Amino acid sequence: MAPTSQLDDTLLRCIGCGAVTPVAESGLNCDKCGDLLEVVFPHPGMASGKLDPGSLKALWKERRSSRLPQDQSGVWRFREMLPSLGKELPITLREGNTPLYELSLCSRITGVRQLYAKHQGMNPTGSFKDTGMTVASSFARKDGFRWVACASTGNTSASMAAYAARGGMYSLVLIPEGKISWGKLSQSLDYGAVTCQVKTDFDGCMRVLNGIVKRMPIYVLNSINPFRLEGQKTVAFELMEQFDWQPPDHIVVPGGNLGNSSALGKAFQEMKDLGLITRFPKISIIQAEGANPLVRTIREKGGKELVSVKAETMATAIRIGSPASWKKALRILEATGGTVEQVSEVEIALAKAEIGADGIGCEPASAVTLAGLKKLVKQGFVKPDESVVLVLTGHVLKDPDFTLKFHRGDLFTGTAYEKDAQILKPRQRAPIVLEASVDAVLNALEHAEKQN
Ligand code: F0G
């Protein structure tokens, strides 16, 4: 890493041994024990008067009508909760400000009467990564880096490439060859990144990146970067604003490298410490059965040591076997009373189609939330009269291949799931190829009505 310049009063704390160091003297891991770091909050020198809950809520609301880029950003609008850029302006694409939708069809399916989606796929590059990227890329530029880099399953790289371009930095992307969606790959090409399809999986890309960092000054923008998580915290502030500062009973998130769940948890902890809220929502994390290291870590090792897996899932965004932030995520589950669950490939595909049929849509990794919720309701962990927010992490257009194959009915052809996939049929809407005649279209409509 080797940041090159600038005085910064941000402090980082090691999540393992608790050692606190100024950011200018830190890499991405603790010098003493090698564990991950997190930004210490409140920030040094922050007058407690600046953190009065009533004044903060009013200030954040007021900024909504401002024309300044940093106020129009749904991340920097909450800048009292973020490390300070001093006099520098952030690199912003006006990220955040994402909608909270009621899910009526999914509510009927799950029996959960108050069911919402916080759609982070509505960010500028189509995923929640933008909320973290605006912060971390701004710090990279402030620290004088020319190059930024990440290993990615596609969304981090798309986001990083965009923010690097906006900030006048070069970007290096390492993605697993053939294992990310074309939509995501095309984004990082368009934004001008040096995009390497590496012949390995995500965990292998991460190992290569760790080697590169030792050889050249390059700023790592994966979620082990504590500044990324600071930005990702803001979804929780925004959500609480949308709920008039009354937390829902449950928040359900997908788990990949486990940065997002960690960021959410940190945000709720800080809001509670400041008196912005009085209780925690239960934060639960859902993984794909074939990429379930956190589930196994808890069930097989009681959370004591990480069980790495060889990850395999069609929800390629969360195809991660050795998640970096597993300890942070465990802490959040414990603090908020949340749980973990895993869902099958067919369950993910069905849930994605149901979110689509609700007129919302999302990418496969986001749909694990609904699939997981169904299980949590069945287990009695979530009660029908409790309020639930699903965090949808990526836009439906991120992975059109998956969606097309689903509706054509060949998503699971030739796989072990072919028989189970029969339950998907009622949700499939294959495109219809017709002669150019009114009768042909009317016949198709008649057929469709019978089907519904
Ligand atoms: N959902 C989507 C759409 C993602 O892209 C990711 C992670 C996750 C969920 C999981 O979030 O890693 O914070 O637990 N994507 C990363 C990437 C790994 O490289 O784009 P997490």
List ligands, each type once. ligand F0G
Structural class: alpha/beta
Tell me the strand order in the biggest sheet.
4-5-13-10-11-12
The count of β-strands is 13
Helix content: 25-40%
Write down the Rg.
22 Å
- How many distinct helices? 16
Distance between the termini: 57 Å
Ranges where pLDDT stays below 50 over 5 or more residues in a row are: 2-7
Beta-strand residue percentage: 5-15%
Largest sheet: 6 strands, mixed
- Can you write the helix and strand succession as a string? EEEHHEHEHEHEHEHEHHEHEHHEHHEHH
Mean model confidence by pLDDT? 95
Q: In one word, what is the shape? A: globular
Topology:
Blueprint lengths: L10 E4 L5 E3 L14 E3 L13 H10 L6 H4 L27 E3 L1 H7 L3 E6 L9 H14 L4 E5 L3 H12 L3 E7 L5 H9 L3 E5 L3 H14 L3 E2 L5 H7 L1 H9 L7 E5 L4 H16 L7 E7 L4 H9 L24 H11 L3 E4 L1 H13 L6 H15 L8 E6 L7 H9 L29 H14 L1
Parallel strand pairs: 5-13, 6-7, 6-9, 7-8, 10-11, 10-13, 11-12
Antiparallel strand pairs: 1-2, 1-3, 4-5
Helix pairs in contact: 4-5, 4-8, 5-6, 8-10, 9-10, 10-12, 13-14
Bound molecules: ligand F0G.
